[in-house]
Amino acid sequence: MRITLCGAAGEVTGSGYLVETDRARVLVDFGMFQGRRATDGHNRDLGPVDPERLDAVVVTHAHLDHTGRLPLLVARGFRGPVFATPATREFGALILADSAEIQEGDAKRLSIEARRAGRRPVEPLYTRADAERVAPLVRHVGYEERREVAPGVSARLFEAGHILGSASVEMRAGGKTVVFSGDIGPKGAPFLRDPVLPPRGDVVFLESTYGDRDHRSLDATVAELHGILDRAVRERCVVLIPSFAIGRAQQVLFHIAELVRGGSLPDFPIFLDSPMAIDATALYSRHKELFDAEARSLARRGQFKEDLKGLRFLSTADESRRLNDLDGPAVVIAGSGMCNGGRILHHLKHHLWREETVVVFVGYQGEGTLGHALVKGAPHVAILGHRVRVAARIHTLGGFSAHAGKTELLDWADAAIGAGTRVVLTHGEDKPRAALADAIRERFRVDALLPLRGDTVEP
Ligand SMILES: [Zn+2]
């Protein structure tokens, strides 16, 4: 057996592992490259993957950096099964449809420029039609169910606690066991069950996103959110929360519900202003079976609706525009999470220059984004072609994360590493990946491999 890294090697995007045996070729994930260093060319290049000779794909979870290039495989001839949990299929369909829409929009815009300059129009990476052809290929796999995914290759998915439906994968072929961590969540996150510890593996691929640090505790982060919202409500402020649509938006609502339930906050208007976040929230309601015990019991007795009486879902752009002259106290949760697009932009344009506005960042802000500029304290910013003064109070809550911290990663590794295990660190920038390798050497006396894209690992 040999395993070739298609991405997420010394970087956090483009996850993909090509597993080859004498009899079969299976991909684990096939995600999009994103961020500053990702080019369109990287995404179009399938590397060692020949879609027509591929037997199957196993998907760990729905995030774009793990599923984003599946439509491209289908467009180039892949017809085999895609194994995933039911929730991953549904969240994945949402994410891929959104991605295809962005691809088509970008290509259209670039094509106008290209034609004007006498060049050929730009083809989208893939179309909505390509994205829609992925879901029918999906074969549902339940947690802890072992399935033959290709001749001589079996897989078992187990809870990763990262987003609803997320899994780690234990793959067996030719008498060897390979474990793919996928993305591992932190313990105690709302809604999600904690990650299940892995079996021992001959080869273990472990993510290293936060291999160099532990997160601030969730309790401290929620206490800070409480402080911000409590003051905002008393001062009748409009609170803008830029948020990712899947996972983070629901987590923020969970914590607000908790604070209202405990009497720490009054009832006040909350607007979820993102069609994708609204769809994702509906999927949460459909998959209560995946909730942890606390969320399941709250959901079963209708407690979230009881706590969040002021919650409104804004589907249309017109409803969203009506918030331009909104008076506080109110919370608006809108995308995108890093303010590089989406409805949050017009809310920022209309409210950022007012002193009675509060902006709360609840997720990572990539360099070069508007969110990053605001977090860094820019006095003026450009939004939708307008120069806008920043008079609002800006807060950054660093403790929400969908990823395990260093200590939790090491505890996971403890279960996976046995005598002779080859540990391979992926899905991390150089610094956290190297730090986790040091910690693994110290604790387990094992030298972890730090491969690059295109490198191959054999058990
Ligand atoms: Zn992920």
What radius of gyration results from the CA coordinates?
A: 22 Å
Shape: globular
CATH-level-4 superfamily name of the largest domain: Ribonuclease Z/Hydroxyacylglutathione hydrolase-like
Helix share, percent = 25-40%
Strand order of the largest sheet: 6-5-4-3-2-1-21
Give the overall average pLDDT.
95
Biggest sheet descriptor:
7 strands, mixed
Terminal CA distance reads 7 Å
Number of domains: 2
Low-confidence stretches: none
CATH class of the largest domain: Alpha Beta
Task: Figure out the total of helices.
Answer: 15
Q: What is CATH's topology name of the largest domain? A: Metallo-beta-lactamase, Chain A
| Number of beta strands | 21
Instruction: Classify the beta-strand content into a percent band.
Output: 15-25%
Bound molecules: zinc ion
Helix/strand/pairing category:
alpha/beta
Named at the architecture level, the CATH assignment of the largest domain is 4-Layer Sandwich
General description of the model:
It contains 15 helices and 21 strands. The chain has 459 residues and is of the alpha/beta class. The chain has 2 domains: 2-213 and 402-457, Ribonuclease Z/Hydroxyacylglutathione hydrolase-like (Metallo-beta-lactamase, Chain A); 218-396, Rossmann fold. The strands form 4 sheets. Strands 6-5-4-3-2-1-21 form a 7-stranded mixed beta sheet. Strands 7-8-9-10-11-20 form a 6-stranded mixed beta sheet, covered by helices on one side. It has a 6-stranded parallel beta sheet with strand order 14-13-15-12-16-19, sandwiched between helices. A hairpin with a 2-residue loop joins strand 7 (146-150) and strand 8 (153-159). The longest helix is centred in the first third of the chain and has 31 residues, at 86-116. The chain is globular. The chain binds zinc ion. Zinc ion binds at residues 61, 63, 66, 162, 183.
